[in-house]
Amino acid sequence: MKKILVPYDFSKTAVNAYRFALDVAAQSGGTLYLLNVIELPILHDSVLMPVLNFEEQLLKELKEKAERNFTALLAKYKPDGIKIVRSVQFGPVLGTLQDFIREESIDTVVMGSHGASGLREFFIGSNAEKMVRFSRVPVIIIKEYYKGPVRNIVFPNNLDTEEQEDLVMKVKALQHFFKAHLHMVWINTPLNFSPDTETLSRLHAFARRFALRDFTIHIFNDWDEESGVIEFAKVVKGDLIAMGTRGRKGIAHLVNGSLAEDVVNHNPGLVWTYAIQPDAVKVS
Length: 284
What we know:
Shape: elongated
Structural class: alpha/beta
Oligomer: single chain
């Protein structure tokens, strides 16, 4: 985690993300990027010049306000030798973040979230949820400030070795970074039931396949996968849940949804996600 992006909107959860990212950057010796994205309203006028003049003044005032907020933040939570790069950009939030990640070669995003529920979750979702779906680099979602350390990582697993090779390598790197214990878990539900003897055999084979270390294997029963993941994390005192997502879009997302995005919206603790890319899938 050498180049860490914190999308910053000056909310409480964004402050929590910044403080956690400071701790991560201190541990990794990395650079922390603070990015405030300002999404502008669309203005219309029959005479072009008044609109342009108004927009120019508006942009200047918004940027100055953002810079003042950055200065206040860094004064309150001093970086202590950590390199901070701060930026204010105008444009659509998701697209601007994706461009910034690519242009600056960001390797990790740490993002605050209030979550989403009800109709907003189904039709719109949160910015954090969209980052989880579309980001090509790992994303850590945080709601309340977490000082750490991260000692226990929960890794829900579907035991698909071909699909998950890239994901597992990144989870192992995450575990190594935090020097944490890995809790690999299969969530047994009525719709996804598997006998314990069969599941345990597959879990052990998966662990051998990827040479996992400092881990335990679990089977946890619940009515659905989302509540199972969240409740299991409580039981083992998991500090962080690590999950892969397929990044479904359009109708596929509406029909199938995303377990990772649901956990991001509803879990109160840290969630690390990585969108499995089609070109990253390797066939043994």
